Amino acid sequence: MSKKEIIVDGVRYVPETDQRADKLDGLEYKIVRTYSAGVFAGYLESEDGQVVVLRKARRLYYWDGAATLSQLAEEGVSKVENCKFPKEVSKVKLLQAIEILDCTKQAQNSIASVPVWGA
Questions:
Q1: Is 93 exposed, middle or buried (0-12, 13-18, 19+ CB in 10 A)?
Q2: What pLDDT, on a 0 to 100 scale, did the predictor assign at position 18?
Q3: CA angle (112, 102, 6) in 5-degree steps
Q4: What does the alpha-carbon distance between residue 91 and residue 53 come to, in Å, rounded to a whole number?
Q5: How far apart, in whole angstroms, are the C-alpha atoms of residue 100 and residue 51?
Q6: Taking the chain, what is the end-to-end CA distance rounded to the nearest angstrom?
Q7: 51 inside domain
Q8: Which domain holds residue 42?
Q9: Other C-beta atoms lying within 10 Å of the C-beta of residue 67
């Protein structure tokens, strides 16, 4: 029996597998769309109105294999080889955030699997 399992009246209960993205120091992995700076994925450090700070963030410059950001946040991308995601930065302060999406582990892993794009 694992530490997360319990037995009540002879019935074993186990938690469902958590499909949300992994955390970094308690911070959740998100996709943030801004008004004019584009789309970023990273760990949400803070949110104050339309000002968002992400840690370990990648700009999602171009993606293929997800019709919308909603699909990307749930499933990731299916055409990794066509995506253009530059190297992550340690921290970015985004102004004019207009959408913040929770990511699944699947989406986070997909974003991480895209090779670094650069000039």
A1: exposed
A2: 57
A3: 95
A4: 7
A5: 11
A6: 51
A7: yes
A8: 18-113
A9: 9
- pLDDT-derived band of residue 15, with 50, 70 and 90 as boundaries? low
Question: Number of folded domains in the chain?
Answer: 1
How do residues 55-106 score in pLDDT, each as one tens digit? 999 999 999 999 999 999 999 999 999 999 999 999 999 999 999 999 999 9
**82 inside domain:** yes
Amino acid at 27: L
Task: Say which CATH number the domain at 70 has.
Answer: 2.30.30.100
Q: Tell me if 11 is assigned to some domain.
A: no
In this prediction the pTM is: 0.81
Return d(Cα 5, Cα 8) in angstroms, integer: 10
In a domain, 5, yes or no: no
